[in-house]
User: What shape does this take?
Amino acid sequence: MLVRFPPSPGEWQEKHLKAGIEDWELAHGVVLQGERPGIAKALPVTMYPSPFSRSGLSLGLEIQTLYNALYHSVINDSNWVIEQLRGTAKYDQFTRNLIEIFEKSLPKRTQKLTGGIFRSDYLVHELSASKESRQIKQVEFNTVSVSFGGLSTKVTELHRFLCENGLNYVHGDVNVSPSLQEIASGLAAMHNAYLKTSNDSQPPLILFVVQPDETNVIDQKLIEYELLEKHEILGRRVTFEQISRQVVLDEHNRLVYLPRGQVVSVVYYRAGYSPADYPSEMEWETRLLLESSHAIQCPSVLTQLAGSKKIQELLTHPDIIRQFVDNEKAEQLEKTFVKMWPLDDSELGLEGQLLAISEPEGFVLKPQREGGGNNVYREKIVPFLKNMPKHEWSAYTLMELIQTPKVSNKIVRDGELISGNVVNELGVFGTVLWDLESGEELMNTQAGWLLRTKLQSSDEGGVAAGYGCIDAILLPENTHASHEPSRRTTSDSLANLEI
Amino acid sequence: MLVRFPPSPGEWQEKHLKAGIEDWELAHGVVLQGERPGIAKALPVTMYPSPFSRSGLSLGLEIQTLYNALYHSVINDSNWVIEQLRGTAKYDQFTRNLIEIFEKSLPKRTQKLTGGIFRSDYLVHELSASKESRQIKQVEFNTVSVSFGGLSTKVTELHRFLCENGLNYVHGDVNVSPSLQEIASGLAAMHNAYLKTSNDSQPPLILFVVQPDETNVIDQKLIEYELLEKHEILGRRVTFEQISRQVVLDEHNRLVYLPRGQVVSVVYYRAGYSPADYPSEMEWETRLLLESSHAIQCPSVLTQLAGSKKIQELLTHPDIIRQFVDNEKAEQLEKTFVKMWPLDDSELGLEGQLLAISEPEGFVLKPQREGGGNNVYREKIVPFLKNMPKHEWSAYTLMELIQTPKVSNKIVRDGELISGNVVNELGVFGTVLWDLESGEELMNTQAGWLLRTKLQSSDEGGVAAGYGCIDAILLPENTHASHEPSRRTTSDSLANLEI
Assistant: This one.
């Protein structure tokens, strides 16, 4: 049986469905912070869960623990990470500052455990019109401040509710992402590991480092509530500025949260990933204070640095990845790679330069720096490079374009309903904890998933900023999405929100 | 140990607490509908749960099933109810219209079961400065469209969270009201009883009759979600206008919801209690259609009529209440009564007129009609009556003033923090179902509670409209509230919201 996707149940039904979505969101905290305290607006979501290949999802979930282990292995070779980033640091102040924090904190550090909450992001790559040709290909690997783990659980629950309530007219299965529970469990495991390294008189708390103007507050609060409810662990959300006034090191190098006189077990960063998070020297000093303390860093500045595009690119080279994992694991991971090249003066860099100039239509040029809207696509690559002094080319990475299948959906956003062709981006969460001294792996878990869906802009290559939303995966029973292939891009994160 | 209430933890701590309250509310659907779809605002709540007497709460909870049974008994004597309201109907078009719906629907009715979700509202009455002298006294008994059962569960959970999270600095116990679950269970019991009276091919659904411009949407949606999740019963929220287009009677007098082709088991009214809900003849015709159908009415128009102040007043007279319940139960119920008089030409009416003129300082004058802001207090009663033709006096009921203890609290509302003296009003929910023919009681349950708290206006008698909020009960461990007695009023419901 062929069932059209998305459904077209009629105007009245869609109006009813839209209201049903908005009410459910407001009733379940699927919201962003509004203009003033006490005001919320419904999170932009798809009207229908998006069809997604079962094998693609399975591969993403299965391979997450290999990715976790790969980055654990890479990060444990701190000299290698820092060495590889020296080139980037030359022209990038932010990378330079992070390396400086790492180097300054190293001699002061007393905590041998280090944690991480990761997210590996994928697009679907379609080699031909056959659905069987679809594979997931990695867009990026995020090691700091990954977002939407809390709300992904809620949005998948929303789409499951709409199926059960008979409102959404789709056929298929919607599974609920356990990311909220898994991320909280990951933080609880770090907290409990910390307890074994300390003998504090009262229970410590987990510090959430957040941005002062955060709108994605509830995504973070959900994790805080889950920590208290399921694990009896207190969390406190604070900005760098608040930390600078309310957090100190005691004589045992423990981090103390003054308002409650409690020690901090884990510093969980939901800020600090962007230069904008460090407007003054105070924020850098605060980061150094945290990094130098006995609290477990989630992530450490070194782990944050390992998430840069340069490291991702290096790992796509067969000989490099095999320095960190065995051949069997490398082959598994390589299934999800597209090719990447530097544009520097190395041998690979020269190969990249040649490809960028001679066959630009198959590539995207990405700056090292995070942040959407700066990618350069296909035929725009050559004039872009020619307008730039050649020594600046090394600030960019060349990446094969991922060809995403053509799918349509509708987005409910700011009270409006928007229809169009969309691109689906899968994210798989992982939680890790290991011992930096012995290298022992204490936790390596796949921690649920996220589907973000973005409306294509009229420019085929780009994704309109601000039109991203959170989605759920509709696993096919008999659903059959239209699937004409079209060239899409490795896309940026949801505009104006965390990674 | 004496502990001051409310706590004064300092400005920084209260700012932190306020933000913690607002975030929790937005994350848990403790919200009112905002100005446009997809926007919510945090429900006004107290910053601290209010101290309340354990014996007062216990009495309210225990006596609820007696109240349910009393009203069941009263309503089963439909002739008596209608007869008593003839006087009110003379000058009140709304009462007249409701009686007409009752009389027109009577011969058409095929459903012998009738349901109700009630709420009995109380203030604390304090005879002396001793806490032992405190008693709860009934303000009114609501038989239609009682609200905040869903959100009361959430707000009590909020205050429990704040205690556990160490944010609110109070000492005592906060119990969670089970009203959300109990009201949904009550509706499910009605639904299941309906199933035994019908043989429909597919499962019926519950129709929620709502106002088109409702802001207290989530309070209703929470019950709808609970019905689906725990009882696998579908609910649909519709206005009278939508019903007029989308609901019909079939040849077996069953109510059919056309968009899904499903029969309606229960009509649950969250609208229809106010003349403003019937702007045209269409709404009255729609109410008649619903009332005449085989669907169980929750409540029937007769049950709605039995909730009027005239019936409440009559039941305060010892000989009248004993027509409906035995002496032992009457004595229990009378513990919660204050004295009430009509102002008509009956013997009691003449007694009431004399009291109103000679000792007005102990009384409040209430119009029969629902809706806040129309009560007349103490010394204002005499000039008010003298400015009115005497035959209109019978539109009013005279009620002894309830003397509430003086308590302070802070209210978080629209992003602001407001401090002051407050009045606490306890509501106790009840769910009922009985057989109109046999009189058999099929359900009689106490269904949780609600605490509403209102800031006193500068006018000692009134309660400023719009300053009500939802609260939780702090049961004393060692807490000790300041308790100078002061004269307060039987107060009105939360302004602009349902009963």
In short: The CA atoms of residues 18 and 412 of chain B lie 7 Å apart. Chain B touches chain A through 39 residues (CB under 8 Å).
